[in-house]
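Tutorial, part two.
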Amino acid sequence: MVLPFDDKYYMKKALQEAEAAYEKGEVPIGAIIVINDRIIARAHNLTEQLNDVTAHAEMQAITAAANFLGGKYLQNCTMYVTLEPCQMCAGALYWSQLAKIVYAAKDPERGCSVMGTKLHPKTEIFGGILENEASELLKRFFIEKRNLN
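Running the prediction step on this input gives:
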């Protein structure tokens, strides 16, 4: 039996956020945060729109979830993100004490695992959920960017 609210379901929601970033000309990365089967934060990259290198999807989602919960810790929460978090975002996720990170596509150059970034000891991380869909969106975005220049 497939549960209606499984990892694929939530990753599709994160991919919707990535599509919203794509439509805005942002690198198409989306993130959502879930607690008790409820989405409490939705976000996507806003680095171009806000002219802020720290405005990654994960950072936006952390802020939104903390505001929703009324506290800085995201214990018992899961983040679904379409690309493995970078070192900056993984550092912020460490401090938020997030319970679990699920990502779609691995970032072999700048991802937290290749950079050796430590996560909170209680944080689980795994990837590969809808990896092809997330990777294709990123590839399409960068091919279009190269063709415009």
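The chain has a mean pLDDT of 94. In part three we will examine how such features are distributed along the chain.
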